[in-house]
Amino acid sequence: MTANSATDLLREHNLRPTRQRMALAALLFDGTARHVTAESLHDQVKDMGITLSLATIYNTLHQFTNVGLLKEIKGIGDAKWFDTNIDQHHHFFDISNDHLIDIPASSITISHLPASPDGKVIDGVDVIVRLSDKSPDKSSG
Amino acid sequence: MTANSATDLLREHNLRPTRQRMALAALLFDGTARHVTAESLHDQVKDMGITLSLATIYNTLHQFTNVGLLKEIKGIGDAKWFDTNIDQHHHFFDISNDHLIDIPASSITISHLPASPDGKVIDGVDVIVRLSDKSPDKSSG
DNA sequence: ACAATCTTTACAATCATTCTAAACTACTTG
DNA sequence: CAAGTAGTTTAGAATGATTGTAAAGATTGT
Ligand SMILES: [Mn+2]
Ligand SMILES: [Mn+2]
Ligand SMILES: [Zn+2]
Ligand SMILES: [Zn+2]
Fold first, then answer.
1. More exposed terminus of chain A, fewer Cβ within 10 Å: N or C?
2. Which ligand is nearest to the CA of A12?
3. B117 and A75: CB-CB below 8 Å?
4. If we measure between CA atoms, which residue out of A75, A64, A4 comes closest to residue A28?
5. How far lies B105's CA from each of A127, B88, B91, in Å?
């Protein structure tokens, strides 16, 4: 993502293109699927020599989420995750390295879902497939 | 759950039957499915006129979980939940009142799950079906 | 009863996150 | 460009859930 397209993206969403937002937009919206926490993103920008406060990371992640540029994922580890894939989808969660991998909604079929209780409607379905390392074969070691 | 059966249950799991553990076991293992947080359980025992510290609630919930009497559920709201249903199962989560309802694993069918990445195995699958209140019919109001 | 071990508890500490208010920056208008 | 206004950033305090610490208290085996 170029500086110009970051500016445009921010303007389109009524966010002033500040130095901080430009840096975060450049990191996040490079076209690849990204899953970040506030801390992981803070570390990434620090590694690039850019200084910006953790409070700004939180502010910006929330603003990007509010305008629909990011989606929040809860229930993975202890922190909130933010996802550049805003389509409805599911996740592999690798517990050995805390990595998330997208699973397109279309590649899982959920059937026989029970009816919602009276007066309630289904708001969404979240599937998390936990992954761990295949154990080494104990019989041959 | 009677005092005697609570004592037995605790002894079977190598936990000394203290006043505090007896009270919590009586509340939790009454045969019905229960989903509690440390705070909600603390409030419940306080309502029964029993005094015990929040630290003990946490200690006891973890001990019960370690011996297989409870299962921990993460990703619901901001706090950890503990579940007396230790079978593999899924949940409705009613976002309007923070209530959990069990969905037996057998009543959901998940198919076409993508293959795990190389060297990884599936450790488990968690499904959370978010519920909200059915909106009032806006066309007739 | 005694000693050993385990348990409870008050309180401090931690961690992710949010709040606050003052300093700073961007945008608009003259 | 200058000034005014509104929006933004930031350090640091506050919050809320949870965990750690260490001393006091309870349970168990002898
Ligand atoms: Mn958009
Ligand atoms: Mn058991
Ligand atoms: Zn994703
Ligand atoms: Zn359950």
1. C
2. 1
3. no
4. A64
5. 13, 6, 9
Which B residues, 73 through 102, put their C-beta within 8 Å of a C-beta on chain A? 74-76, 92, 94-95, 101
pLDDT at residue A137, as a whole number? 62
User: What value does the mean pLDDT take over residues A39-54?
Assistant: 94
CB contact under 8 A, B122 and A128: no
Q: What is the mean pLDDT of residues A77-97?
A: 93
Q: How far apart are the first and last CA of chain B?
A: 49
Interhelix angle for A38-47 vs A19-28, to 10°? 100
CB within 8 Å: B116 and A75 = no
CA triple B108-B111-B112, angle to 5 deg: 160
The b-or-e profile of A65-97 (16+ CB within 10 A means b, else e) is: beeebbbebebbeeebbbbbbeeebbbbbbeee
How many whole angstroms separate alpha carbon A29 and alpha carbon A1? 6
Q: What is the pLDDT of residues A62-85, one digit of tens each?
A: 999 999 999 999 888 889 999 999
Take residue A74 and report the two structure tokens written for it. 């809860």
pLDDT band at A96 (very low <50, low <70, confident <90, very high): confident
Q: How far is A26 from chain B (nearest CA, A)?
A: 29
Domains (ranges, CATH) in chain B?
A: 3-131 (1.10.10.10)
Query: Counting ligands in written order, which one lies closest to the CA of residue B11?
Result: 2
pTM of the entire predicted model? 0.88
Residue nearest to nucleotide C26 (CA to C1'): A16
